[in-house]
Design goal:
This protein is 73% helix and 0% strand. It is mainly α. It has a domain of 146 residues: Four Helix Bundle (Hemerythrin (Met), subunit A) (Up-down Bundle), CATH 1.20.120. About 2% of the residues have low confidence.
């Protein structure tokens, strides 16, 4: 009887030690990876450069011009509003009993973000996209993808505003509306990152020639 009682105690005592080698191995691997990455960063030579100027997409040129106002108006403001919607969206999805101010912040960030980006979309279409198209001023496919990706953000952001204003999806349940919200937020993140990635590329990579390119006059 006493032997039977001592078995669980011994098993319990040895159980934590069985996991120690796994933790030790994981810690050692993580430490070695950090050391290798650090050593590699210092050991690699400086990136080569020929000193030539790199052509910019109109997306990057827009953000770099009239600093810091263009960056604030066309990048910071819509991204902050969209990320506010995304963060509060997570709070609502994981906690349906979230405080009222979280719900209110989510709703108004969606409405303001959608209407604001609709105004940005109209302004850039009239002053950039249409003149560049009619005047043949695009700097190759990279330029078109970057600007097109940025402008397409109006679909998910304005869609969120329409949801909150009950113009879109009037008959949706609260759960269905949250799903549409999440889908629109995800779509905006996709197109925004496409715009950023292609916007930072050199348009000459896809065959664009810098001689005589047209700038964006805004």
């Amino acid at each position: 009887m006493s032997a039977t009682q001592t078995r669980p105690a011994s098993a319990t005592a040895t159980a934590p030690t069985a996991h120690r080698p796994r933790w030790a191995l994981g810690t050692a691997v993580a430490g070695a990876a950090v050391l290798a990455a650090t050593a590699g960063a210092f050991a690699l030579p400086a990136l080569p450069t020929d000193g030539a100027s790199v052509a910019m997409t109109h997306y990057m040129e827009l953000l770099a011009t009239n600093q810091p106002w263009n960056l604030l108006m066309f990048m910071a403001a819509p991204v902050v509003l969209a990320e506010t919607v995304a963060i509060t969206e997570l709070a609502l999805l994981f906690n349906r009993d979230a405080k009222a101010w979280v719900t209110s912040l989510n709703r108004w960030a969606g409405i303001i973000g959608g209407l604001y980006f609709l105004a940005v979309f109209g302004y850039l279409m009239v002053n950039a996209a249409i003149p560049l198209t009619t005047g043949g001023g695009w700097r190759g496919p990279i330029d078109v993808i970057a600007v097109g990706g940025y402008l397409s953000g109006v679909v998910p952001l304005f869609g969120i505003a329409l949801l909150e204003l009950r113009v879109l999806g009037r008959g949706l349940t609260d759960t269905a509306r949250l799903k549409w919200h999440a889908a629109f937020v995800g779509l905006f993140l996709i197109v925004a990152h496409i715009a950023m990635i292609f916007g930072m590329l050199d348009p000459t990579l896809f065959g664009y020639h810098t001689a005589g390119h047209a700038g964006m006059h805004m």
